Amino acid sequence: MTPWGALRERDLAAVEEMDKPDCDLRRLERSYARFPVVNRLLSEWPRTYRSRIRPLLASRGSLSLLDIGSGGGDVARSLARWARKDGFDLQVTAIDPDERAFAFAMRAAAVPGVTYRQAHSADLVAEGRSFDVVLSNHMLHHLHREELMGVLSDSERLAAQLALHNDLTRSNISYWLFLAGFWPLGLGSFICGDGLTSIRRSYTPGELAAIAPPGWRVEPNGPWHHLLVHGDGSGPDGQD
User: Fold this and answer.
1) pLDDT of the residue at 14
2) Dihedral pair phi/psi, residue 15, rounded to 5°
3) What domains can be seen in the chain, in order of their start residue?
4) Three-state SS for 126?
5) What is the pTM of this model?
6) What 8-state DSSP symbol labels residue 88?
7) For 33-89, what is the HEC assignment?
């Protein structure tokens, strides 16, 4: 158990069970199946959609969006459903290099406008792809420094309008509240244990701002998250 006050620095030695290639597949798939609950309660995607993505949809009518490291695909499906409900056309490509995540996403109930690929962001850069919006959820803390810089570079190349990387904010209070509130979801899955590891590996806003390349900015996103943002949705020429 992590003692109080022990989260002053990122725990780079901690490894999430889900990231291990030999982890229990049944527990992994239960984790993917429970992520919608976690993200609905904690990750602020409804607010991010309303404040950042829906205004772009309202001004353009349609958008293309890339979800990097999409896991089981629940964020991609939610965004597409919300846009469709609002009468907009949002075409979402959800990518994850892990074949287990890709297989789970492909078995999920189909949602119009959502496609899945087993791929890295660099693969899409090599293909010359471009999307109006690029985003990720709870991915940055998984990456080593070189991998993080690579994903941010890819995001700049892939995002014509806006890039949004949503991640956890490391703090003692978030650690203990997550443990207290989400341990039931950890039964038979990796949700609780890996969630705590995620918090231990995550950045504070100041740490992330200190290493972010020029043009990126860190913005608060609710009490437990922050966004690493590039662009403002106005496009490369600065015109909306």
Assistant:
1) 94
2) -125, 130
3) 27-171+204-230 (3.40.50.150)
4) helix
5) 0.93
6) -
7) HHHHHHHHHHCCHHHHHHHHHHHHHHHHCEEEEEEECCCCCHHHHHHHHHHHHCCCE
Mean pLDDT by runs of 10 across the 240 residues of the chain is: 70 95 97 95 95 97 97 98 97 98 97 98 98 98 97 98 98 94 93 96 97 97 96 57
Token digits of residue 80 = 């597409």
Q: DSSP character for 52?
A: I
- pLDDT the model gives residue 235: 56
Site of tokens 């189909």: 110
Q: 166, 160, 141, 146: which is closest to 229 by C-alpha?
A: 166
User: What are the beta bridge partners of residue 137?
Assistant: 166
Distances (CA, A) of 138 to 41, 110, 164, 195: 14, 23, 11, 10
Burial of 204 (0-12, 13-18, 19+ CB in 10 A): middle
d(CA 59, CA 157): 23
Q: Give the β-pairing of 131-137 and 159-168.
A: parallel
At residue 230, the 3 state secondary structure works out as: strand
CB 160 within 8 A of CB 132: yes
SS3 157: helix
Question: Three-class SS of residue 72?
Answer: coil
Which pLDDT does position 2 carry in this prediction?
A: 56
